[in-house]
Amino acid sequence: MGDRGRGDDAGPEHRHGADRGLPGAGPGAGGPPVSVLEWYLCVAAALTVLGSVRLLLARDPLVRLICLNVAGSGALLSLVVLAARSDPPDPVPHALVLTGIVITVAFTGVGLVLLRRTEEAPADPGEAPPGPWGPAGEEGGR
Question: What angle do CA 90, 93, 96 make, to 5 degrees?
């Protein structure tokens, strides 16, 4: 089929990202050749690690939610990269990634609603929560 970033059957001018200016690629670079898929896998690992580390260090809940999304994006990217290594690409990991994207969007939406509700929560536990219902269930209880 064609070069899918692996450099197996590509011509010498397209092998291992030499035409893309990737570090460590091409003749005379001094290191082993690096394919495009390996670069994407490194980016996926970096996203996952950076999101996870920042998640552990952050105190703000919104920052933590964003860090979870970054770490999840790295995991999804690694699934796409690993699926693209076969020729033709495996459709099952791609379907899993699409499902993961939908779950991530839903999780983020629910997380943002929960964050907003906790910011609006009353400091006094006996105080009525904000909303259309009052403490006894009557409408307009604010």
Answer: 145
Q: Confirm if 115 and 65 have CB atoms less than 8 A apart.
A: yes
* pTM assigned to the model: 0.64
Cis peptide before 88 (omega within 30 of 0): yes
Q: How many domains does the chain have?
A: 1
Q: Which two tokens stand for residue 18?
A: 């030499």
Domain, as residue range, for 52: 33-120
Which two three-digit tokens encode residue 21? 């200016």
How do residues 11-63 score in pLDDT, each as one tens digit?
Answer: 555 555 455 555 555 555 667 888 888 999 999 999 999 999 999 999 999 99
Asked, for residue 73, whether it belongs to a domain, the answer is yes
CATH number at residue 41: 1.10.287.3510
CB–CB of 68/55 below 8 Å? yes
Flag whether pLDDT at 123 surpasses 80: no
Site of tokens 């991530």: 104
**Best CA proximity match to 75, nearest among 111, 108, 99:** 99
